[in-house]
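Hi R.,

Here's the chain you asked about this morning:
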Amino acid sequence: WLALPDLAAKGEADCALGTAARVADRVDVTLVCTPEANATGRTVTLVGEDAKELAHEQVPEGAVAIAIKVPEGARALEARLSPGDVIAADDAVPVVEHATDLSLAIVADAAASHIETGGPPPVERALSALDLGSFVKPLASVPEHSEELAAHAGLVLDDPPGLTPEERRTVAAWVEGGGTLLLGLGRRSASAPLGAGLGTLVPGVVRWAAIAPAGAAPDGCAFFGPSAEGLSDMGAKGRAMLDHEAIDGAETLCAWSDGAPLLLRRKLGRGSVLITTVPFDLESSDFPVRPAFLALLDRFAEGARARGGARVVEAGSGFLLHGFDKVEARVQPLGGGRELELPVVDRDGSLSVSAPLIGRYALTLDGTSDVRYAVTPAREIDLRPRSIAPRAADPSLGGQTQQTDASPYVAFALLALMVLELAMRAFSQGSRA
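And the predicted structure, written out as tokens:
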């Protein structure tokens, strides 16, 4: 089995609109092109209601983003790139209103991370390696007011030395409203001052054990995918121990080799809390430099952006809608196409809606209307040909293997035996006569 040559990528030139976000009186539009292409000279047009053109801007040479001013009082619905490449389906994207809620906030102490070369903490570096760009927002401390967290879809706390009552209330309310929290527990979390616990985020007392297994059991860490193999020996120099109160009702996504949880997921309201029993510093373990750590952050970022506060996902993924009892969903295709109803799927107690098309998604969440968006996956705008993997030539692929049909020969042999038997019977009867 081999891919047909006609289906192989030929490396044609293609440019697409990545995102279009409304910021005050302008729309910021990003462009993504294959290595052989550029959008120089083409026009980006903003379209409003009734397909009315609101404004347009020509793409300057070498530009990967442009800003288009929107007329006062106008509402831009789509951004469209003028024709000029092989794929027209990715030349339009919905304009995202108030897109600032896509950021991921990080609270990590660089001094406590003990990086000899200096620079940001490991968790911030790892998120930067995932190329999330402006979505990563380092914070000096845990916000104490709800409006400070409202702009973020995800929050990372690396070994916090406890939380004040105001911080606990703010973070807990934000999670219950749909936020996603990633919490790394370590020595500082276990030595929090009296009255500075983690409350409902991690019920009970956090203790630090100076002795820990070398690593996790890969068979029990399917959450990390193929990178789970690298967790069998993390060189852990300790781990956080949780009370049964924190473990009961939580989902263990990965366990140490002795069965104790390494990664837990607790549901809280419409949001969730991911808890690791090792912090994100290099003194406690090698976890921050293992591929599984990037897999964790990638899953966290994807879940945070698809859950409660975030409204923008890549086409082909979906929206997680935990905590809602009744959900209705419709997609509004670009170009004024007819609205299509979408099925709502219940997965492990959480409702989800797939986002198969680029466009606007009108959701009804327990009677409340909401609008979310699916945009062009930038990583798919690469049509360069790739060499076929050696395994692609395996004859077993495609559900077929080389076989020889022996049934005609078996049938002929049986027929010959039957003729022989009839001849012998006739001969024996003639002899008796």
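The mean pLDDT is 83.

Let me know if you need anything else.
M.
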